[in-house]
Amino acid sequence: MTIRNLEHAVSPKSVAVFGASVRDGSVGRVVFDNIVNGGFEGEIWPVNPKYSGLAGRHCYAKAADLPGVPDLGVIVTPPETVPGVVRDLSEKGTRAAVVITAGLTHENGLRQAMLDAAKPTLFRIIGPNTLGLIIPPVKLNAGFAHMAARPGNIALLSQSGAIATSLIDWAADNNVGFSQIVSLGDMADVDVADCLDMLAGDARTRAIVMYLETIPNPRKFMSAARAAARIKPVIAIKSGRHEQAAKAAATHTGALSGADRVVEAALQRAGILRVKGLAELFDAAETTARFAPLDRARVGIVTNGGGAGVLAVDQLMDCKGELAALSPATVVRLNTTLPPTWSHANPVDIIGDAPPERYKAAVEAVAADPGTDVVLVMNCPTGLGSPLAVAKAVAELTSEGKIGGKPMLTCWLGEHTARDGRRILQDAGIASFETPADAATAVSYLSDWSRAQRSLMRTPSSRSEDTTSDRAAVLAILRQVAKEGRRMLMEPEAKAAISAYGIAVPQTIVAKSAVEAEQAAGRLLKTSERVVVKLLSRTISHKSDIGGVELNLATAAAAGKAARAIEARVGKHAPAATIEGYAVQPMVARKQAQEVILGVSRDPIFGPVILFGAGGVAVEVMDDTAMALPPLDDVLAGDLIEHTRIGRLLAGFRDRKPANRGAIVAALNGLSQMIVDFPCLVSIDINPLLADADGVVALDARIEIEPERVEEPGPNPALAIRPYPSGWDRKFSANGARFHIRPIKPADIALYPEFLARISPDDLRLRFLSPRKNFSDQMLKRLTQLDYDRDMAFVALDQSTGALAGVSRLSCDPDHTTAEYALLVRTDLQGHGLGWELLRQIVDYAKADRISRIEGIMLTENIRMLAMCREFGFSIAHHPSQAGLSLARLDLGWSR
User: Fold this and answer.
1) Has residue 240 got a pLDDT over 70?
2) Least confident span in 51-65, 281-295, 385-399, 567-581
3) Predicted confidence (pLDDT) per residue in 843-892, tens digit
4) Which of 128-132, 395-399, 848-852 has the highest mean pLDDT?
5) DSSP string spanning 284-314?
6) Please, are residues 73 and 89 in contact by the beta-carbon 8 Å criterion?
7) Considering just the CA atoms, what is the radius of gyration of the chain in Å?
8) 404-426: average pLDDT
9) Do the Cβ atoms of 738 and 730 come closer than 8 Å?
10) Please, which contacts does 401-406 make with residues 24 or more away whose CB atoms are closer than 8 Å?
11) C-beta of residue 74 within 8 angstroms of C-beta of residue 144
């Protein structure tokens, strides 16, 4: 729904340039000349009341004077005139414009005036303050870039005009072409998410590259990015990687949650490959557009120079890559074709005098090894071999850039002959790079992209079946805290809360005084060797900072003495603080355990985030943490652990047994479920969480809440990724058949081929409004892999066979005011009431999601569907703009 009217911008047949000029050095002159000189084949109408003619064309004074309705307006007029131009264009019938003009701000009111002028007709605005829009396939250069871009299959989205022009310049020297270049400017209307939605369905675009500075609407961005990344590679640079983290926070997690860590987690979860440099954008785009994601990327290297191979391995290791281990059979095979002095290992150094035949034999052997997933072929110029001849020989081994179905990448070092060799390889469809580092980094793109795609495909439920939880118990705790007007839970309350979600904690006795602390210690020492005494205070968050923790207390008297010492330190260092008492606990001594931290914080853009890493009192100094967006499941929680250095320690080393990974994953899932269930949570620290082979135990916990939001129900609306909507399953029977209706899952793609095969051609025509025989894999992914924010689908499954019987679907506009529905039931199962039940499920869901109205577009000849809609309460009318179609509408009563 976010791409409404954008088709007029990216496939225009006529353009009107407001502010076109003949004045040298003016933006209006440059923009108009770029459009004319770029060879745009549609109508070009200059608009400027100062001229009667311009560059041999009649010049018009205003939009109303134009001889036709321009598909696209390009506006380069002074800021105060822009709202009026937009209004005039809208009234003329135009539906999209590029506003290059700067100076339309919130402060001067012009930005809002422009948007108000566009709103009545859903007029779309790219900009303002933009470099412009370039669509090379239609020869449109509607901007003030210094040069045109060549046509190609990469789309570029940039929030910086300067970066866009730099990339256009770089691409020209590297034979890179574009399907679209959109300089987004201030994004008053059209933003990154809108463009991603548009490009996801653009047949001319094979890969999308982005330069991002801000992400204004995180849920909309995540929804669009996840939809696009399921279909084609999306690669991004996000600037500001080293922004200073929060200087003050109530929890360690708040202090550690730097903005870039969250961006990294968000892009990973959206299936986007992130790179650091501008040149890497196109290398990554080329590599990922050529090959499918790899579960593993074990690299086999063939080179005629040992040093070059070592450099490639160094870079591969820096990128956390994996070098293939050659099998004994492969070594034997290489021994029969290579000179005795070859390296006998990977990289396979075939010596500097290697002719084309030796290259072919080595490459074929390495590619055939079952332990190799990617082949990297390198050539160093020598006086004993021809880089051109070798390039031709290697090119003959491949099909679509692959050898034996495995990706092949190449690196021809040097300039003169190497440049020609690289061209031969590129012409053969083989990715070729200039340096070993570039080639090895390109290999890492495949594995990094694979990890991102794996995260993308995970859609955890809003109610995890594997997580122990007692929401009612936690709600009672939070209500009491809110009643007292507190934001911070005291330690016993926080531990009780996390314990309710399956995270083990030691026994805690709350003592009001030093005397009670002594008595509590006496009871605990009957079963424990030592105890711990901790300060309880509503006003002191980090107890250790003022000496509020005493460890290894062997007697009850020592515990009482420790409580009095804590009281004295509080009086000295924080005299205004209140002391509620002391927490007395058994001293947990697990010598083989690692200290880790689990945490939750709120990012100002992406909302709740989960942190995992090395814990303890020096957690900020260690700074070994990774972040993820909730909700999590076992796979995503495991990925979070693996993104840290301590994750490798938890796997075991020397005499230390591996920690119980399942227990750590369960703790992360429990934390994730808490976030889903309680929108009032601001931050959580579980530090340290001891983890060893026997499991995990939380020694300390802090929780901060918003008291006024305690009663808000879940799932948490602030989640950037909407969880799989649990609770929407139901079963029904009809004519002896039993069906199970539930929200669609990505795995349901496997059910579609049989389902579609059992639907008549006429039923497919009625559903898709035109004849349809084939459904591409990309289309099936789009139908089954939803993020449940703007789209929803329910499947009806035959309970006896598990086969797909029917699907109902809902697609909402960005503000969730109106949603379009569609329905398809297997031909042989029609007449069982299945369509009615699926429609009812969609309507019930729309009501629960507070959607104001649902609509369906159908062929007027679809009599059965129209009759069912009337019976259901829909109003039916002829489609206002398309003959032969009817519009069914059901108002649900919500207003926004």
Assistant:
1) no
2) 281-295
3) 999 998 888 899 989 899 998 889 999 998 999 999 887 888 899 999 98
4) 128-132
5) HHHHHHHS---S--EEEEEES-HHHHHHHHH
6) yes
7) 32
8) 84
9) no
10) 401/290, 401/291, 401/428, 401/429, 401/430, 401/431, 402/291, 403/363, 403/364, 403/367, 403/375, 404/367, 404/368, 406/367, 406/372, 406/373, 406/374, 406/375
11) no
**Kind and range of the H or E element at 210?**
strand 207-212
Specify whether the CB–CB gap between 89 and 72 falls below 8 A: no
| E strand or H helix that includes residue 28 | helix 27-37
Concatenating the DSSP letter of every residue in 705-745 gives E-GGGTT--SS-TT-SSPPB-TT--EEEEETTEEEEEEE--
Q: In what order do the strands lie in the sheet with 151-158?
A: 140-143, 132-135, 178-183, 151-158, 207-212, 234-238, 273-274
Helical (H) or strand (E) element with 685: strand 681-692
pLDDT score, position 895: 60
Hey, how many other C-beta atoms are within 10 angstroms of the C-beta on 824? 20
d(CA 406, CA 399): 10
Determine the Cα–Cα distance for residues 142 and 44; give it in Å rounded to an integer. 11
Encode pLDDT of 260-294 as tens digits.
Answer: 788 888 898 888 988 887 778 888 887 877 777 77
In this structure, how many other beta carbons lie within 10 angstroms of the beta carbon of residue 437? 17
pLDDT surpassing 60 at residue 243: no
Domains of the chain are 7-239 (3.40.50.720), 287-455 (3.40.50.261), 507-581 (3.30.1490.20), 730-891 (3.40.630.30)
Among 331, 310, 348, which Cα is nearest to 436's? 310
Q: Is the dihedral of CA 343, 346, 351, 357 positive or negative?
A: positive
Helix (H) or strand (E) holding 237: strand 234-238
Sign of torsion over alpha carbons 761, 767, 768, 770: positive
Measured between alpha carbons, how far is residue 811 from residues 15, 500, 792, 808 in Å?
A: 31, 37, 7, 10
The β-bridge partners of 610 are 600, 628
- Confidence tier at 249 by pLDDT (50, 70, 90): very low
HEC profile of 90-121: HHHCCCEEEECCCCCCCCCCHHHHHHHHHHHH
Which segments of 760-890 does DSSP mark as H helices, in order?
A: 761-768, 777-784, 834-848, 863-872
Extended strands (E) in 335-492: 348-349, 374-379, 402-403, 406-412, 431-433
Centroid of chain to Cα 160: 21
Q: How confident is the model at residue 1 (pLDDT cuts 50, 70, 90)?
A: very low
Using H for helix, E for strand and C for coil, what is the string for 49-63? CCCCEECCEECECCH
pLDDT at 493: 92
Residue showing tokens 């007395």: 584
Name the residue type at position 856.
Answer: G
CB 97, CB 84: distance < 8 Å: no
Tell me the DSSP string of 114-182: HHHHHGGGT-EEE-SS--EEEEGGGTEEEE--SS---EEEEEEEES-HHHHHHHHHHHHHTT--EEEEE
Model confidence at 457: pLDDT above 70: no
Token representation of residue 331: 């070594």
The encoded tokens of residue 283 equal 């290398």
Contact 822, 808 (CB under 8 A): yes
Neighbours of 614 (CB within 10 A): 23
